[in-house]
């Protein structure tokens, strides 16, 4: 009995908010948001739900903490750059790849824009907008436009990649859609018929960054 109590105490001592959040991230990645419960988390951590509630009040707080941890790690991996445009590109790619790897992050960012994960991104983007020399009155517009584009397109990309269950071959799918566009009525859909060939072979990340360049060009023109 004494040995069992000591083992239990060691598990309680080792349980921390950081360890709980890391386990929650693993569950979210494998089971999705519906699979994240305090009971499943307790099983993974070999503890009781009560011990988790000591550190985390509820599931919403846990989701925010998990999202904030993933976003913080992504931004830490974004190396500093002396040039604000390059820094903004790196932030954009970091968010794009993070949401692609953790689709639930995108849902959380869009669900709670006032929480720390999105504020963290807004701050990083805003500093670079200031460094570009954008005037005070236009800083909110420029930074919020970049933030909305980066998060919105990243979420859409992650959703597209998981649209089918079981997954389908991306090239085959795009070829099929491209062929369908080419067959559309020429008078009603002239634009889609024209770009159908581009759809079949486009690169998602390259198109995403092309959109960033369009926004940055507009910001520079406004300067």
Under CATH, the homologous superfamily of the largest domain reads Tetracycline Repressor, domain 2
Identify the CATH class of the largest domain.
Answer: Mainly Alpha
Classify the helix fraction into a percent range: over 70%
Uncertain segments: 1-13
* Rg, alpha carbons: 22 Å
CATH topology of the largest domain: Tetracycline Repressor, domain 2
Major sheet: size, sense and barrel closure? Answer: none
How many β strands by DSSP?
0
Overall pLDDT score: 87
Q: What CATH architecture label of the largest domain applies?
A: Orthogonal Bundle
Task: Summarize the structure in words.
The chain is an all-alpha fold. The protein folds into two domains: 56 residues, Homeodomain-like (Arc Repressor Mutant, subunit A, Orthogonal Bundle), CATH 1.10.10; 154 residues, Orthogonal Bundle (Tetracycline Repressor, domain 2). 78% of the residues lie in helices and 0% in strands. The chain is built from twelve helices and no strands.
Can you give me a brief rundown of this structure?
The chain has 223 residues and is an all-alpha fold.
Keywords, separated by commas or semicolons:
disordered N terminus, 78% helix, single chain, Tetracycline Repressor, domain 2, Arc Repressor Mutant, subunit A, flat, 223 residues, 12 helices, 2 domains, mainly alpha
Q: How are the secondary structure elements laid out?
A:
Blueprint: H1 2-14, H2 17-31, H3 38-45, H4 49-53, H5 59-77, H6 84-101, H7 103-111, H8 116-131, H9 136-161, H10 170-182, H11 190-201, H12 204-222
């Amino acid at each position: 009995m004494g040995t069992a109590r000591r083992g239990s105490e060691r598990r309680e001592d080792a349980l921390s908010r950081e360890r709980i959040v890391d386990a929650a991230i693993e569950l979210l990645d494998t089971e999705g948001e519906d699979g994240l419960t305090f009971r499943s988390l307790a099983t993974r951590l070999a503890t009781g739900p009560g011990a988790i509630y000591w550190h985390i009040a509820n599931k919403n707080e846990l989701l925010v903490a998990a999202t904030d941890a993933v976003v913080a790690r992504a931004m830490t991996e974004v190396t500093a750059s002396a040039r604000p445009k390059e820094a903004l590109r790196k932030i954009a790619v970091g968010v794009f790849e993070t949401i692609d790897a953790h689709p639930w992050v995108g849902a959380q960012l869009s669900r709670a824009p006032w929480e720390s994960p999105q504020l963290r991104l807004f701050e990083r983007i805003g500093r670079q907008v200031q460094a570009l020399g954008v005037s005070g009155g236009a800083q909110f517009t420029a930074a919020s436009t970049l933030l909305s584009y980066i998060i919105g397109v990243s979420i859409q990309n992650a959703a597209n990649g998981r649209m089918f269950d079981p997954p389908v071959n991306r090239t085959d799918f795009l070829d099929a859609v491209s062929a369908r566009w080419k067959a559309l009525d020429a008078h009603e859909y002239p634009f889609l018929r024209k770009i159908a060939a581009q759809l079949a072979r486009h690169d998602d990340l390259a198109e995403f960054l092309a959109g960033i360049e369009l926004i940055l060009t507009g910001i520079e023109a406004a300067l």
